[in-house]
């Protein structure tokens, strides 16, 4: 599957030697801020304290307003140095839901209730006709997380473009080929639920509440093909919903709605290696393994895929990779361990917006251009958990 323009420009900046500081610096107070942002879970610092020039960021702030961004939030060592727009408004995560699924699978595996090497045949996984072949059922849970199952069955929440881009059934054996595949992600969620219970309940109990998310309320709905298309009023009452399309697949898609504020808390958890206020919510090794490059999607641009995360190959082998996920090429959550930075960008795709994938590319370029200091080396980089919330 061809990478999006956003993924290409991220890799391009790396290949040009720009390091992993891409898209990580803005100035506090450069754009409109909703009154709903206070109080929240974050302290504030100046752009200078994060290594950015506030004056250079005026162009970025103007572009966010012009292009139709909804909100943006940037953290350095767990402290906000830029916020723009209404960071407390929940919005659909779209494909960023895969990054949320990563933590829930990691917790279930850590409890010993789910094996990564378990095959679909062992787990009794099949689908609506045309059913899975014996070869397809050799795929493992890990290969679902890596999007390398080799199973190109129709899936819920799959666009026409995604359907058209799928390879033919049976063209690749499990584990031999990467293809961004909603069937893999939906089945991974279903396997998780069989082992550890409801995805949404697990997120509420094991992630949202421990992190102190403010805007997530755990209100979950359901949409089934044939129902009226979800409207704004319906979505506004929910924090997530399941999308059932039984004519395509027996496995629904699990959608989340989170605010920029709450999504930034989630990114900060990963930056801190899964530790939060004295508790290890997610194994550090799980985060390390999940964010290693497994499939080189575009090696010339330094773009790879790990376990439910996009990964940027580091400029230096001793440095930790940055990792991110986008949603419909306009939303973005980025975690940059070398700079101890988390970035969140949101667009109101529920109401409709003119913001495009090319606009996100420009946002990334403008952010990078504002950086004053080069990225620190891995040896001098202090642990994020030393100062984060």
Could you please describe the fold and organization of this structure?
- The chain is built from 13 helices and 14 strands.
- It is of the alpha+beta class.
- It folds into two domains: about 5-90 and about 260-385, 3-Layer(aba) Sandwich (Beta-lactamase); about 90-255, no CATH class.
- The strands form three sheets. An eight-stranded antiparallel sheet has the order 2-1-14-13-12-11-10-9.
- The model is unreliable at about 10-35 and about 380-389 (pLDDT under 50).
Quick recap:
The chain is of the alpha+beta class and 389 residues long. It folds into two domains: 213 residues, Beta-lactamase (3-Layer(aba) Sandwich); 167 residues, no CATH class.
């Amino acid at each position: 599957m061809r990478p999006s323009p956003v993924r290409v420009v991220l890799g391009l900046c790396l290949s040009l030697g720009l390091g992993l500081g891409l898209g990580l610096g803005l100035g506090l107070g450069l754009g409109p801020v909703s009154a709903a942002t206070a109080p929240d879970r974050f302290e504030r610092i100046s752009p200078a304290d994060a290594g950015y020039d506030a004056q250079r960021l005026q162009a970025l702030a103007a572009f966010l307003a012009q292009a139709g961004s909804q909100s943006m939030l940037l953290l350095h060592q767990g402290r906000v140095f830029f916020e723009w727009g209404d960071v407390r408004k929940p919005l659909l995560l779209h494909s960023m839901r895969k990054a949320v699924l990563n933590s829930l699978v990691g917790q279930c595996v850590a409890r010993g209730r789910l094996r990564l090497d378990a095959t679909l045949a062992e787990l009794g996984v099949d689908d609506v006709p045309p059913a899975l072949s014996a070869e397809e059922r050799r795929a493992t849970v890990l290969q679902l997380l890596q999007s390398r199952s080799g199973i190109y069955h129709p899936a819920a929440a799959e666009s026409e473009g995604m359907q058209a881009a799928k390879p033919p059934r049976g063209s690749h054996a499990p584990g031999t080929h990467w293809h961004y595949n909603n069937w893999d992600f939906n089945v991974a969620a279903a396997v998780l639920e069989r082992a550890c219970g409801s995805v949404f309940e697990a997120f509420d109990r094991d992630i949202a509440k421990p992190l102190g998310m403010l805007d997530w309320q755990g209100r979950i709905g359901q949409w089934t093909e044939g129902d009226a298309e979800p409207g704004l009023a319906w979505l506004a009452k929910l924090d997530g919903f399941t999308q059932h399309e039984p004519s395509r697949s027996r496995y629904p898609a699990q959608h989340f709605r989170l605010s920029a504020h709450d999504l930034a808390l989630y990114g900060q958890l990963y930056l801190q290696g899964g530790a939060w206020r004295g508790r290890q919510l997610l194994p550090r090794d799980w985060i390390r393994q999940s964010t290693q490059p497994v499939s080189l999607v575009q090696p010339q641009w330094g773009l790879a895929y790990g376990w439910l995360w996009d990964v940027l190959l580091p400029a230096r082998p001793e440095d930790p990779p940055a990792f991110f996920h986008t949603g419909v090429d306009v939303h973005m959550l980025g975690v940059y361990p070398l700079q101890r930075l988390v970035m969140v960008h949101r667009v109101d795709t529920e109401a409709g917006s003119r913001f495009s994938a090319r606009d996100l590319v420009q946002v990334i370029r403008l952010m990078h251009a504002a950086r004053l200091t080069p990225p620190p080396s891995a040896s001098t980089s202090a642990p994020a958990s030393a100062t984060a919330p």
